[in-house]
Each structure stands twice: as structure tokens, then as C-alpha cells.
Amino acid sequence: MGRSDLYLGVDAGNSKTLAAVADATGRIVGWARGGLGDIYGAPTPEHAIDTVLSVVDGALDAAGVDTGRIASAAFRLAGVDWPEDEGLWTSALDARLPGVRHSVKNDGFALLRCGEPSGVGVAVSLGTGAAIAGRGAGGEEFFVSWWFQHNLGAAGLGSDAFRATMLAELGLGEPTSLGAALSAFYGTSGAEDLLHAFTRREQPLGHHDRARAARVVVAEAAAGDPVAFAIVREHAIRAVDYITICARRVGLDAHRELPVVLGGSVLAAPESLLRQLIVDELRGAIPDARVVTTGAVPIRGAVLDAIAEGGVAVDAAIQAAVLASEPPEGLLST
């Protein structure tokens, strides 16, 4: 029987799936990328499963190994929201990766070890959407997923700015510089032309186009527009609400030093106003919070989870090795 001395991490979402194989020191020796791996977003769950396992095969091929070398695998997957989702994936992995020890969790957990090697704390990833997940010192876990009642992340910022612009144009909201800024960003001639661009019958702009405007909202807020600032601050307050709930659910609300890992494109951006407002709000809500901001992509956290779940104590050196491993050019591009 061959050695089982490598670790497999998988991060699957609505736009792409990534897999990576690492050794026990954290050096990544094989990478692969494929398409959508979310069972809620794919044409069928089987399509998502096939996609993810094809990417796994690609990472194993890149590493020059087979599944017999894998000591532990961590699957961090968008769309693992309910017990039946975890059960579906577990059954599929048992059947198609026999003998491989694996865990299946919501993708919100993937970022946590990128900022906190122990895997204890709360992770907040704000990209196009939002993912917030927490793990307690005893292994208790909670993730927000469908519990979100506010549209956070870039898509939420863009939607709120769009709404504020239209209300201002109708005289139902406060005047704001957002209208002119959004029109310049999208190349439209004013509020009505902007509205038309998103609602016309043929080739309207969509969800991801609206999310692109997050940078405009934050820039106008930083420049002093009170409406834009109120939007960004409201997002910070709501994010801290969900962080607090996560911490409480896993027994960390009284934790002496609560690690909070912030990441995703909206929070990892240089001089992010939203990040600073979240930190400010955390000081009041959880005074002992220790905030770590990371620009790492979640696949690296999935690899760290696999190593930890394989019985290796993940320390700062292993974390640094995983974070420093260079992928093939273009593999991590959005």
C-alpha cells in the first residue's frame, strides 16, 4: 500500500471551481481549475458534481499522483447550505473517491485558516456576495448562508446605490453624487438612461454589472457624499451584526480574543472604507476582536483545512507556505 502523505483542497462556487494538492509542509504541488460547482446554480446537481470531480482529477494529474496519496480532502462548496446538500455530496464523494477521507462544508469556512491557522474564529468574505462562517474552540460551527436577510457584498452595495439614485431622481430621496458617478461609470447620460440600461428588453445589464459599481459607491462615500456614506456604513453595521451572531452561535461571544478574518475583493481592496467601518463597529460590539485582513483566495484555506483534518498541526509556517505557493499563470483570475 502506498503512502498517503498529500492533502487536497477544493473550493467551488458559481463562477469557477479550484482544486489544489499540497504536502504536509504546505507546499502546493498541483493546481486545477474548472467551471461552476454549485449544486444550486448548475443545470443539475450531477452536473456540478461532475465538474468538481473533473477539477479534482486535474489537480491530481498536475501533481502526478492518484487518490491513494491523499491523506485528507477538504471540499468547501457553495451550495452546501442544508444537511441534505452535505449528504448529497458525501454520497457522491464516497462513491467516486473511495477510500479518501474527506469533509464537506459550506464555502464560507474556506477563508478562516487563511487568517487564523487554528481555524477558530469568524471569517467574513465580501466579494460579489457575502459569506460569513464561524468555528468555536470545541469545533462548533455556524454559517449564515440563507440566514442572510440583507444583501451584502458588491452586489448589495451596487443595488443600494442604484436605488438611492432612482429615489433622488424622483424626488423621493436625498440628493446624491451617486447618479452622476454611476452614469459616468456605465457610460449613460443620466438616471433614466441608467435605468433603461438595466431594464431594457434586449441585452439589459445584469446582476454582475450592478456589482461592479461597488467601487463607485465606496469612492463617493470616501469623497464625502452623505448618501453613499450612509449606504457603506449600513453595510458595515449589518456585517458586524452577522459576525456577532456567528460568534455567539459557536460559543465565542465571550472569547477573550476573537479572531475575525476579513477577505474577499470588497474588503481586501487597498484602503477599503467598508473594511475600516467594520473594524470601527467591531470595536464597539466585540472589543476583544482581533481583526486579520487577507487577500488570499479561499482555495488556499481549503488546502489548510485538509492538512489540519489530516492530523497535521497547522502553524504559521505551514500557513505561510500555502499562502506563498504560486499557481500557474491565470489560474486564479476571476
From TrEMBL:
For the ATPase BadF/BadG/BcrA/BcrD type domain, which residue ranges apply?
A: 8-304
Signal sequence annotation: none
Q: Which InterPro entries match?
A: ATPase_BadF, ATPase_NBD, Euk-type_GlcNAc_Kinase
The source's domain of life comes to: Bacteria
Quote the PANTHER family the UniProt record gives: N-ACETYL-D-GLUCOSAMINE KINASE
Name used for this protein in its record: ATPase BadF/BadG/BcrA/BcrD type domain-containing protein
